[in-house]
């Protein structure tokens, strides 16, 4: 190689390096989380690292489609979404790059992350039973299987069977109870419906309070939000409705995650890894979980959340998020077969 060529190469390398160094100062985040307390989390990250966050908010499936459409030209570095199966679908579509970080694998229990390090859970939420305090004794609904018992015919409110919260719950049942018992459970649930599935989890809790049904399924944070609400109508709802964490003597209550991963075509990979590691820090964990009344995945993180405290401690199912994701397609077939719309 002649000397001028070397110099040129040196100049090019230097130019590439400065571009890279400059590019590390931003992080492009595609987020399906829209909680106000997450703002503080992002501000603190920028304060600690000097990396500015450009955030694009959207619905889970829209953001997924957008990343897919943008392909190699996508500016997205990190995708945050909800539900283990959605994270796995993104992985199956080849959207994520593996992040082999000792910080992440040390902080996040294996249950809450992809074994190949393509995605990581940062908080988890429990699927709980909401019940009308005047009509139901909590001891009668110890287990999720109780919801299918003939004694509750016409008493149950649930959102659509195909919603990820229910679908992933059914995936856990396939693993924990086996296929036959899960099919029976689904038939029982459909037979017990008080009305056609409609609305979100909060609507089911409200329907219990209104006497439309005695029992409902909900994620814990929807109940926590009502607990925290100062609106008289919400206070009225929580005065009439209690919650039970099911399966405490057996598997533990089904839990699902909110999480994310670094994207394959991330232009700012170093910043992306720093951000994911930051999300697993005790400070971020507390914000991340408190913001939506979820639970931090990192054990021992102190949270300050009166609603979660009021709801009490519980045993969570230890089933891996990757296993949940794996059984989800079958869960959907079973749900369709049972006619849970
Ligand atoms: Fe939700």
Condensed summary:
With 341 residues, this protein is α/β, with parallel strands linked by helices.
Would you spell out the secondary-structure blueprint of this structure?
Layout: H1 3-23, E1 26-31, H2 37-49, E2 52-57, H3 60-70, E3 78-82, H4 84-92, H5 102-107, E4 120-132, E5 156-157, H6 164-177, H7 179-192, H8 201-209, E6 215-219, H9 220-228, H10 232-240, E7 241-244, E8 255-262, H11 269-279, H12 282-290, E9 295-296, H13 306-311, H14 321-338
Helix pairs in contact: 2-12, 4-14, 6-7, 6-14, 8-10
Bound molecules: fe (iii) ion.
Please describe what this structure looks like:
It is a single chain. The protein has 341 residues and is α/β, with parallel strands linked by helices. The protein folds into 2 domains: 174 residues, Periplasmic binding protein-like II (D-Maltodextrin-Binding Protein, domain 2, 3-Layer(aba) Sandwich); 154 residues, Periplasmic binding protein-like II (D-Maltodextrin-Binding Protein, domain 2, 3-Layer(aba) Sandwich). Helices cover 47% and strands 15% of the residues. It has 14 helices and 9 strands. Strands 1, 2, 3, 4, 5, 6, 7, 8 and 9 form a 9-stranded mixed β-sheet that branches. Helix 2 links the parallel strand 1 and strand 2. The radius of gyration is 22 Å and the shape is globular. The N terminus is likely disordered.
């Amino acid at each position: 190689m002649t000397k001028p060529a070397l110099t040129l190469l040196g100049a090019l390398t230097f130019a590439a390096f400065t571009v890279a160094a400059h590019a590390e100062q931003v992080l492009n985040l595609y987020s399906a989380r829209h909680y106000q307390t997450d703002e503080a989390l992002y501000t603190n990250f920028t304060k600690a690292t000097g990396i500015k966050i450009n955030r694009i908010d959207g619905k889970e499936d829209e953001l997924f489609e957008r990343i897919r459409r943008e392909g190699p030209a996508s500016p997205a570095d990190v995708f945050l979404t909800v539900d283990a199966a959605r994270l796995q679908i993104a992985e199956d579509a080849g959207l994520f790059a593996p992040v082999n970080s000792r910080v992440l694998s040390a902080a996040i229990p294996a249950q809450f992350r992809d074994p190949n390090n393509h995605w990581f859970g940062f908080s988890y939420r429990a699927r709980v039973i909401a019940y009308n305090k005047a009509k139901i004794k909590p001891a009668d609904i110890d287990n999720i299987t109780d919801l299918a018992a003939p004694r509750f015919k016409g008493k149950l409110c649930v959102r659509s069977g195909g919603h990820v919260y229910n679908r992933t719950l059914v995936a856990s049942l396939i693993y924990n109870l086996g296929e036959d018992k899960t099919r029976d459970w689904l038939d029982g649930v459909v037979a017990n419906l008080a009305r056609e599935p409609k609305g979100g989890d909060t609507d089911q809790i409200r329907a219990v309070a209104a006497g439309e049904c005695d029992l409902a399924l909900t994620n814990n944070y929807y109940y926590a939000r009502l607990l925290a609400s100062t609106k008289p109508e919400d206070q009225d709802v929580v005065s009439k409705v209690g919650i039970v964490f099911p399966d405490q003597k057996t598997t533990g209550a089904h839990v699902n995650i909110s999480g994310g991963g670094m994207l394959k075509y991330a232009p700012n990979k170093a910043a992306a890894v720093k951000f994911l590691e930051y999300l697993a820090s005790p400070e971020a964990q507390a914000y991340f979980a408190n913001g939506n009344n979820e639970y931090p995945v990192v054990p021992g993180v102190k949270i300050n959340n009166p609603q979660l405290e009021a709801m009490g401690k519980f045993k969570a199912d230890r089933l891996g998020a990757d296993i949940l994701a794996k059984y989800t397609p079958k869960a959907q077939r079973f749900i369709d077969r049972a006619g849970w719309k």
